């Protein structure tokens, strides 16, 4: 391979993140403890530069490294979502005491982001597998970073389930490789073209689906999500709630509609089944929760269900709607986690009842939380409504009316648990009435997200025109 | 005598099954880690066998196997670190005793 | 030429709203400056728009709001003579009302919120005026409704105020239902809600008439036409400047604007125009008679507004499109003037009961003079604004052969002149009737200057459409509909009845020449009118009481049967959730097992149902 022929532009955002991850890590090693405080800001700068370089790649389609790595619209949009949400997490945690040294913490986060970005661009099974591992390995460490019994338990569960899912995914990949004789998506597409669905191929598809389904927390591969969301340090949970799933969805969009296009009717049905299971399980179990982050964990499962509707639709509009909904969901979920971060920072508990009277103690936090929850329910004029509208409309126009009805029904169920939080915040009087102060960067981050949730609810075209919907 | 591809696949499937049973039934967290390693190696056998029989002229399957080995090593590193943290906290690596988070 | 400044006209007040929602509490009294600056910017841009339109510009600036595939929702800014005229009226009146409010609302504890609402109300109204399609029209229409609800109920501590706000909201909602049905019908039949495309389409007359009449229901609610006029008098519970803005120039005009905007559609089904004319005439006459007996200064003006809106509808209905729009234009000025004048009076004497006032002429010169100018305009005395526009409407009725409507219109004009001057003579002349008016004095400059400006317009606005200016207004608004030649009979009659009405009022209230009880208070007709034709009671007995009975029955049914079912479902759902959460056992090996079982079930299922062997 001639390295001078490689278009390094294609991988520039990843290289920037890699560079900054190493810089931040070295900073941990060589700086004194005062200077280390600014490493979060360094990481933020790195992410922003990466955002700029992703935008510079806009509208370009490149495939490099012998077809292992490709840049296209889907990859760019998902990378952008990932980078923006991560930037908001980093911004929110600038003044928050993190569980490891700042350098370790932020460099692990950046490595995980790097893995997710590579996942979004992977067009080869080898690349996809390595990228996926690069995404999750730092995440396991981050989850464990508090080093107490709770954090370690969650990390162990996440890790064990994660590697089992990885192994099943890998086994599926080997079968796919055996069935097609190639690891490259484009070659797989060619070799499957016109062939009927063989049993080995089907098993391969299902095993791959398990691995990626685990990544995006689809039922029945979701068990890690509530535990991790509840038990990991709040900044880590915030990060996990939004960004890393982008890699999973990018891989799903690249692998199934592209590489496995000939098997489309089969996997579309599987996704529909997973969607229904995820929606019902997530929403019904969330009804019975009392811990806010655990509730958000189940809500995340339910939202994976909504998102999979886009894959069940199995056409361009479905995927675009899914990406849009992923964006608005990530914003709202991240916002909700950051509100929880803000309250736990001030020693408020994480049970729903601990939010009692929050609107008196922290009016901005309360209204932000209400906006995020309404967006998650899917009420207009918030972004979540538009997201669900386009998603279910895509389902209806592909004759999946039953799926759209189930989606709407589930949105109605989900109102039941989101509203309990809002009720506590606004209608129940607080037990203590000290005002809750928030650090400036976290405040900024929450307000930015709230503005975005309202903006994209009122004017979704700003995003839709980007993803060419 | 040439050993057919299916023999390799059967060995691989058996190894995968053994690993899976270990993951599902053993109580020691470290043993579970080893079981996962067995499953990873089952996948590696698949990769090498397919590479030899399906695409004899290309070595991408064998390369894949090499990468998987590297990843397996790093997974074990992270896994053992987490198990160690667990042990420090509860003086045990019994997976059945790790049960704070549920429902 | 592109007019990309148009969105700013709406955007600036919205920004003011957002700013005031955030900072209004902190800034307190300074909030007014933000809002006033914003509306003045809008006014300036509106005037620029008007000048551009006079220069021959007619344009549409469109933005795609949301689109998916071939399905587009657009919003935009339609600029033509009608909308340009409304823009200037809305922003001008809004600016003057906001300046006036600096004095009137001085020291109110929710000052910032008040201005925030005014800003957003103005923005919604401007968005409505700009609407190039019915989706935007409907959304802005609802926005106007919501913010008027907030403004009417601004003093929500007062029970009557929050009741009135609720009533206004509910009653207009009844009309909106018709509007919504009309839009659905339109979309089903035409596949679009873009006005330009709709008006170019062909509709069967019956269908067009049905849709138009349904759409007119919306206007009946918003513009307080018979039989949905009952909310407007109650809405006087809001602060008086709000009444001047909402109930004179803007929101109530929205209904008239809707009809004027949709005129091509109404013309496709001529029966609908007859309907509009009849409703307008009934409203004009009935409201005028009620105004005769009202004794609350704001209620008199409220009924007079209803009556004048009836005139506008009458004008549109009989085919005098330009005349209806013209009356909308002049009425906005003189009625806003009268309301603000009433506000000034109320501010001075702290009462709304006219028979507790009197002799204010000596103490409040500016208010009195401007109020009388407004009164003359309302009564239709030449050369004041109201005369020219009302004359045009009556002329339209006369020439189009609507004889009955014409004579009722003349009669209403007589009543209008009478009740207007009854108000003026009682409030401003004679002796003070209650002693607490001793300290009444002229209002501060922020209140009197807007009065003077509006007084100027009440005096001159009509001339734009008068024969002296070659009916410039009508030619501008409706180039096709040339103004009718002057008819001496109509003009003479209308002047005569105005003078007769004023003289009668003078005889009765200005002097003591007429006996006190020329009409006995026990006279059945008087009772009927004084009780507003028992419309509220009618609603009470025909609608509200049966509704309550029904509601009580439904409630019982609801509590026993529906609640049972709903609670059952909710409980079952929650129980299901609680049961399902037991799957999350906490044992990681169980989770791995469930994942594996999930995989195996999927594999078996797919082999079975996809027929793969």
Architecture overview:
The complex is a heterotrimer of chains A (469), B (103) and C (613). Chain A is mainly α and 469 residues long. Chain A has one domain. In chain A, 75% of the residues lie in helices and 1% in strands. Chain A is built from 21 helices and two strands. The radius of gyration of chain A is 21 Å and the shape is globular. Chain A starts with 11 loop residues before the first helix and ends in a 5-residue tail after the last helix. The mean pLDDT of chain A is 89. Chain B has 103 residues and is mostly helical. Chain B is elongated, with a radius of gyration of 17 Å. With 613 residues, chain C is mostly helical. Chain C is built from 24 helices and two strands. In chain C, strands 1-2 form a two-stranded antiparallel ribbon. In chain C, a hairpin with a 2-residue loop joins strand 1 and strand 2. The longest helix of chain C has 47 residues, at 535-581. Chains in contact: A-B, A-C, B-C. The A-B interface holds A 125-126, 129-130, 133, 137, 140-141, 144, 147-157, 159-160, 163-164, 166-167, 170-171, 173-175, 177-178, 181-183, 226-227, 230-231, 288 and B 9, 16, 19, 23, 29, 32, 36, 39-40, 42-43, 46-47, 49-50, 54-55, 60-61, 63-64, 67-68, 71, 74-75, 78-79, 81-83, 85-86, 88-90, 95, 98-101, 103.
C-alpha termini separation of chain B: 56 Å
Please count the beta strands of chain B (DSSP E, at least 2 residues each).
0
Helix content of chain A: over 70%
Oligomeric state of this protein: heterotrimer
Distinct helical segment count of chain B:
3
Mean pLDDT of chain A: 89
Helix-strand makeup class of chain A? mainly alpha
- Main beta sheet of chain B, described? none
Q: Distance between the terminal alpha carbons of chain A, to the nearest Å? A: 38 Å
**Can you tell me the number of structural domains of chain A?**
1
Radius of gyration of chain A: 21 Å
Apparent shape of chain B:
elongated
Low-confidence stretches of chain B: none
Structural class of chain B: mainly alpha
- Percentage beta strand of chain A: under 5%
Top keywords for this entry?
heterotrimer; A: 469 residues; mainly alpha; 75% helix; 1% strand; B: 103 residues; 3 helices
């Amino acid at each position: 391979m001639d390295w001078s022929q490689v278009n390094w532009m294609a991988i520039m955002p990843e290289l920037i993140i890699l560079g900054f991850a190493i810089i931040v890590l070295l900073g941990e090693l060589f700086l004194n403890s005062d200077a280390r405080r600014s490493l979060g800001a360094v990481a933020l700068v790195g992410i922003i530069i990466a955002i700029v370089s992703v935008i510079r790649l806009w509208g370009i389609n490149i495939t490099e490294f012998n077809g292992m790595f490709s840049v296209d619209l889907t990859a760019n949009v998902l990378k952008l979502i990932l980078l923006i949400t991560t930037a908001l997490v980093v911004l929110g945690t600038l003044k928050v005491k993190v569980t490891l040294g700042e350098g370790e913490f932020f460099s692990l986060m950046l490595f995980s982001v790097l893995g997710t970005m590579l996942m979004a661009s992977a067009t080869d099974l080898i690349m996809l597998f390595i990228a996926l591992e690069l995404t999750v390995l730092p995440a396991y460490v981050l989850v464990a970073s508090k080093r107490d019994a709770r954090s370690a338990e969650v990390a162990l569960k996440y890790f064990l389930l994660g590697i089992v899912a990885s192994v099943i995914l890998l086994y599926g990949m080997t079968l796919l490789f055996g069935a097609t004789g190639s690891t490259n998506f484009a070659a797989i597409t060619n070799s499957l073209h016109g062939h009927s669905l063989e049993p080995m191929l089907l098993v391969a598809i299902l095993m791959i689906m398990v691995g990626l389904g685990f990544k995006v927390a689809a039922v029945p591969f979701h068990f890690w999500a509530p535990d991790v969301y509840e038990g990991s340090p709040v900044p880590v949970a915030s990060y996990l709630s939004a960004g890393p799933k982008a890699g999973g969805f990018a891989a799903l969009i690249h692998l199934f509609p592209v590489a496995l296009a000939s098997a489309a009717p089969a996997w579309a049905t599987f996704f529909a089944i997973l969607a229904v299971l995820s929606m019902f399980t997530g929403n019904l179990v969330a009804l019975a929760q009392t811990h806010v982050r655990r509730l958000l964990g189940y809500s995340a499962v339910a939202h994976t269900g909504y998102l999979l509707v886009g894959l069940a639709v199995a056409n361009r509009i479905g995927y675009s709607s899914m990406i849009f909904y992923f964006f608005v969901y990530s914003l709202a979920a991240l916002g909700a986690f950051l509100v929880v971060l803000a309250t736990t920072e001030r020693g408020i508990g994480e049970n729903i009842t601990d939010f009692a009277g929050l609107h008196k103690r922290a009016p901005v936090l309360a209204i932000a939380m209400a906006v995020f929850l309404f967006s998650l329910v899917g009420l207009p004029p918030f972004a979540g409504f538009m997201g669900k509208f386009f998603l279910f409309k895509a389902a209806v126009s592909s004759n999946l009316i039953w799926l759209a009805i189930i989606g709407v029904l589930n949105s109605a169920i989900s109102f039941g648990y989101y509203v309990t939080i809002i009720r506590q915040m606004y209608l129940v009087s607080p037990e203590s009435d000290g005002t809750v102060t928030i650090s400036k960067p976290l405040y900024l981050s929450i307000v930015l997200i709230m503005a975005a949730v309202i903006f994209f609810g009122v004017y979704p075209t700003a995003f839709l025109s980007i993803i060419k919907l | 005598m040439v050993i057919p591809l299916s023999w390799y696949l059967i060995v691989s499937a058996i190894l995968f099954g053994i690993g899976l049973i270990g993951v599902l039934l053993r109580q020691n967290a470290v043993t579970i880690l080893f079981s996962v390693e067995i499953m990873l190696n089952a996948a590696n056998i698949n990769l090498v066998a397919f590479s030899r029989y399906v695409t004899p002229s290309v070595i991408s399957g064998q390369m894949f196997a090499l990468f998987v080995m590297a990843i397996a090593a790093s997974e074990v590193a992270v896994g053992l670190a987490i198990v160690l943290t667990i042990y420090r906290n509860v003086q045990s690596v019994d997976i059945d005793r790790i049960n704070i988070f549920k429902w | 030429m592109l007019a990309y400044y148009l969105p700013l006209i709406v955007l600036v007040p919205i920004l003011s709203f957002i700013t005031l929602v955030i900072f209004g509490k902190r800034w307190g009294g300074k909030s007014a400056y933000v809002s006033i600056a914003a509306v003045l910017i809008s006014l300036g841009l509106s005037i620029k728009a008007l000048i551009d339109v006079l220069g021959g510009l007619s344009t549409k600036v469109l933005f795609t709001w949301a689109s998916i595939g071939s399905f587009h929702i657009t919003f935009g800014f339609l600029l033509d003579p009608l909308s340009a005229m409304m823009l200037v009226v809305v922003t001008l009146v809004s600016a003057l009302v906001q300046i006036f409010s600096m004095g009137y609302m001085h020291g109110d504890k929710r000052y910032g919120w008040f201005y925030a609402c005014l800003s957003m109300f103005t923005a919604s109204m401007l968005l409505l005026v700009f609407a190039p399609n019915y989706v935007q029209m409907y959304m802005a229409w609802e926005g106007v409704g919501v913010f008027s609800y907030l403004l009417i109920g601004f003093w929500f501590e007062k029970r009557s105020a929050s009741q009135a706000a609720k009533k206004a909201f509910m009653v207009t909602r009844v009309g909106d239902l018709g509007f919504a049905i009309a839009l659905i019908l339109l979309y089903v039949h035409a596949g679009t809600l873009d006005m330009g495309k709709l008006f170019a389409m062909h509709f069967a007359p019956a269908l067009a008439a049905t849709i138009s009449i349904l759409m007119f229901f919306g206007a009946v609610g918003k513009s307080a036409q018979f039989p949905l006029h009952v909310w407007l008098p109650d809405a006087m519970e809001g602060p008086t400047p709000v009444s001047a803005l909402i109930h004179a120039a803007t929101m109530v005009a929205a209904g008239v604007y809707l009809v004027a905007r949709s005129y091509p559609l109404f013309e496709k089904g001529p029966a609908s125009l007859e309907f509009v004319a009849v409703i307008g005439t009934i409203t004009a006459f009935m409201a005028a008679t009620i105004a005769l007996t009202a004794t609350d200064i704001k209620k008199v003006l409220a009924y007079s507004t209803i009556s004048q809106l009836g005139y506008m509808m009458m004008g549109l209905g009989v085919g005098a499109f330009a005349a209806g729009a013209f009356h909308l234009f002049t009425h906005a000025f003189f009625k806003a003037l009268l309301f603000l004048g009433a506000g000034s009076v109320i501010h001075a004497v702290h009462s709304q009961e006219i028979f507790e006032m009197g002799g204010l002429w000596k103490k409040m010169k500016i208010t009195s003079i401007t109020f009388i100018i407004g009164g003359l305009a309302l009564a239709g005395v030449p050369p004041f604004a109201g005369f020219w526009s009302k004359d045009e409407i009556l002329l339209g009725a006369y020439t189009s052969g609507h004889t009955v409507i014409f004579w009722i219109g003349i009669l209403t004009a007589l009543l209008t002149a009478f009740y207007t001057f009854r108000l003026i003579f009682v409030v401003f002349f004679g002796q003070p009737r209650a002693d607490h008016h001793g300290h009444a004095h002229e209002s501060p400059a922020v209140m009197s200057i807007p009065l003077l400006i509006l007084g100027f317009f009440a005096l001159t606005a009509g001339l734009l459409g008068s024969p002296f200016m070659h009916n410039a207004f009508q030619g501008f608004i409706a180039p096709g509909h040339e103004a009718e030649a002057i008819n001496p009979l109509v003009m003479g009659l209308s002047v005569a009845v105005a003078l007769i009405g004023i003289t009668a009022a003078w005889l009765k209230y200005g002097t003591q020449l007429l006996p006190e009880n020329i009409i006995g208070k026990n006279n059945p007709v008087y009772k009927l009118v004084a009780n507003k034709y028992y419309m509220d009671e009618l609603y009470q007995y025909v609608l509200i009481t049966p509704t309550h009975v029904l509601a009580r029955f439904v409630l019982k049914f609801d509590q026993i049967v529906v609640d049972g079912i709903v609670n059952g479902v909710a409980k079952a759902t929650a129980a299901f959730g609680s049961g399902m959460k037991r799957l999350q056992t906490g044992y990681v090996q169980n989770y791995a097992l469930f994942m594996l079982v999930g995989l195996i079930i999927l594999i078996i299922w797919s082999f079975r149902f996809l027929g793969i062997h």
